[in-house]
Amino acid sequence: MDEELFDIVDDRDEVVGRRSRGEVHRLGLLHRAVHVLVFNSRGQVFLQQRSLSKDKHPGVWDSSASGHVGSGEDYDATAARELCEEIGLRPGNPPARLFKLAACAETDAEFVWVYQADSEGPFVLNTEELLGGGWFSPRAVTDWIARAPEEFAPAFVYIWKKLGAS
């Protein structure tokens, strides 16, 4: 199987080239990603536990769905694709943009658009991508991060703090 290709971007998030996933990560090149937070009607957020086979941050807890923007793809299409690929969710409305993060150490050199979707589940989890998942109150997530931040992907911790959720 061919390795995924990512657009390389400059510090203004403008495309300047294209490289393979491995090269982008190995060289620490700026690239793009999305994170989607799915909330239910009780205000709980669905979090996924990343597969142990992931090349970055295996086995830790992360956003409901997340992933890299493929070369030539846009953020919005990626958010919808990742929801479908990772948790089997095809929302009636596109996920809503919440905010954008500049590429930094916490995001692994990724510009990140953060989205919100609403769903009650249940979800069909992609077992190649996820170990599992569950619903959590925002207060429980905040407390868990304070107690054991190493159990979460660094980008998720950064996003959660920016979100100001509790």
Q: End-to-end distance, in Å?
A: 42 Å
List low-confidence stretches.
Answer: none
Helix content: 10-25%
CATH fold-level assignment? Nucleoside Triphosphate Pyrophosphohydrolase
* Rg for CA atoms: 15 Å
CATH class: Alpha Beta
What is the SS-derived class? alpha+beta
So what's the overall shape? globular
The CATH architecture is: Alpha-Beta Complex
Roughly what fraction of the amino acids lie in strands?
25-35%
The CATH superfamily title: Nucleoside Triphosphate Pyrophosphohydrolase
Along the chain, the helix and strand elements come as EEHEEEEHEEEHH
Overall pLDDT confidence? 93
How many domains make up the 3D coordinates?
Answer: 1
Biggest sheet character: 7 strands, mixed
The count of β-strands is: 9
Count of runs of 4 or more consecutive helical residues = 4
